[in-house]
Amino acid sequence: MVQYVVEWLPRINRIAIVVEGWERVQIESVEGTFLSILGDDGQREDISLPVEVEENVNLPYEFEKGRNDLEYIVKIRSKSSEKYDNLIMSLPDGKWTKEDLCLDPEFSIECLQCKQKIINKDNCRVLNNMPSEFWMELMDYWHCHKPDVGETKFGSYSQYETLKPSENEILIGNSFFQGTPATLKNAVLEKDSNMLLCKNCSVVLGQTTAGPLYKLYKWKLRLRRNGMTYHFPPELDVMLSLISVVKANSCRYALLKSGGKRLLVWIFSFDLGVTLTGNKQLKRSMKLLYTDNDATTNHCIERQNAEELDIQETTFHAFYDGLQRVNALLPSNMKVVGEWSISYVSLVE
Ligand SMILES: [Zn+2]
Ligand SMILES: [Zn+2]
Q1: How far is the CA of 207 from the centre of ligand 1 (A)?
Q2: Which of 257, 293, 311, 315 could be stapled to 237 by a disulfide with Cβ–Cβ 3.0 to 4.6 Å?
Q3: Which InterPro entries is this protein grouped with (predicted)?
């Protein structure tokens, strides 16, 4: 059994390939995005690279012995890629944004479990993207620490007020939709003054928030658009929050908290192309280091600024399981660094 990981760093045009499990590794051929390697016993593995190798592979590339037994490493130059100028800011802010939904006026947001229509043209006349949660926090901050000057100079916070949607208006967050109770009255039911259930099948779709507003989680829904069905993986909720953290304050550490559990995540690098054992390809992925070790976590958050994120249990577990699944595919030397485990998450399908 051979395990491998291919990491493409677009900024420096380098593809690094680490292979583990054979006594010896040789390159049989490398061309375009195709790499074929041979083991000592005639084993062969065809690997799809995340990007094409440089056009004329003149130098003979050779695998070199790594730090572990049975570990081999080679670094190959990739074709240069010019679309990676504006790295952080070009990462997606969300999925099922206003721009996505406006592509088809007949779009329909449905209950994932029973397919009942929840948001469509019958109850939605206006769509608006919400500013990121971090922008909202900032506004809250200014609200509480209002500068002691006349209203004239700072306006009347009208932008803040308009975050309350009108009837038949849906506000779109990174991973949720928000509307007034009147807008959503035919689709959802309130339970225990806080939970929102699908009116048809009673599955939990979201929660009531201040306003009161109805907040529906995208991962409990599906999108029908132009005859296609789209899903929102729960772990995307966490990934989009991590991107916001990096974009908003270039903070590289996030402390995820969920139901008494803590997971410290170090956003090590982003916008990598990755191929994992079994030719599983991840595009525009983030390389994450993570730990749930209390001592490591405490040691780190005492010294580093870590953004604290409260995460729902469903999305927390989906995210954590995803990290562990990818970690299991990595060669042993690539799985851990010190007290941290290593993983990759992809931002696009
Ligand atoms: Zn339902
Ligand atoms: Zn530390």
Answers
A1: 15
A2: 315
A3: UBQ-conj_enz_E2-bd_prot (IPR019193)
Q: Report pLDDT digits (tens) over 21-44.
A: 999 999 999 989 999 999 999 999
Q: Domain 98-231, what fold?
A: 2.170.150
Output the pLDDT for position 156: 38
ipTM: 0.64
Report the separation in Å between the CA atom of 143 and the middle of ligand 1, taken as the mean of its atom positions: 38
Give 298 Cα–ligand 2 centroid separation in angstroms.
8
CA 188/CA 204 separation, integer angstroms? 9
Q: Which ligand is nearest to the CA of 302?
A: 2
pLDDT in tens, 180-225: 999 999 999 999 989 999 999 999 999 999 888 999 999 999 999 9
Measure 124 CA to ligand 1 centroid, in angstroms. 19
How far is Cα 221 from Cα 116, in angstroms, rounded to an integer?
Answer: 10
Ligand that comes closest to the CA of residue 303: 2
Domain ranges of the chain: 3-77, 98-231, 235-346
- Is the domain 3-77 a CATH 3.30.70.360 member? no
Closest alpha carbon to 3 in 62, 17, 16 = 17
Angstrom distance (rounded) from CA 168 to CA 267: 38
